[in-house]
Amino acid sequence: MFSMVFAGRYIILLMGLFSMYTGFIYNDCFSKSINVLADNKVLQLDPTVEGVFTGTYPIGIDPIWSLSVNKLTFLNSFKMKMSIILGVIHILFGYLVVLVFYKWLAYDARTSQSAPSLLIAFINMFMFNYNDPSSRIYTGQMVSRRYWCS
User: Fold this and answer.
1) Dmax of the chain from CA atoms?
2) Among the residues of the chain, which ranges form H helices?
3) Chain centroid to CA 124: how far?
4) Which of 19, 75, 108, 135 has the most CB atoms lying inside 10 A of its own CB?
5) Distance CA 91, CA 73 (A)
């Protein structure tokens, strides 16, 4: 057990770092944002004041939004758009996972030569190329492609 953990120590370290980064971004974008990298003394809307941070905020939501009048409108709009983007990504990867499992179950070693490519099927789905018979994986795929891309 120890040798397995020791051999994977860098993977465990990176998984911990990435989970902390993801938690920070999730907290900053979808929960209570915090001002980590900017000084509170210069956090104001007037850019002509000496010491105001004039560049792009390097990570997360810029804390200047906490002072603006339309803070709630901006944050709700941002969260709604991000939820839609993340939801669509989850749906498409979920569809890809279903296709992978279907391909595993539908094709075996004898029929693997005739198995269609999932990459080509996904590309054809987004290019609305429904006439390519080489990317057909299951019956009724054209109907489901139109549904997922509409």
Assistant:
1) 73
2) 2-7, 9-30, 71-106, 118-126, 141-149
3) 22
4) 135
5) 27
Q: Distances in Å between the alpha carbon of 56 and those of 25, 38, 59, 63, 65?
A: 16, 11, 9, 11, 13
In angstroms, the first-to-last Cα distance of the chain is 49
Cβ–Cβ under 8 Å, residues 54 and 47: yes
Alpha carbons 77 and 71: distance in angstroms, whole number? 10
The span from the CA of 91 to the CA of 102, in Å, is 16
List all residues 6 or more positions away from 92 whose beta carbon is below 8 Å from its beta carbon: 148
Residue with tokens 């850019």: 47
In the chain, what percentage of residues exceed pLDDT 90?
Answer: 5
Q: What tokens appear for 2 in the block? A: 């120890």
pLDDT tens figures, 12-57: 999 999 988 888 777 777 777 666 665 555 566 666 666 666 666 6
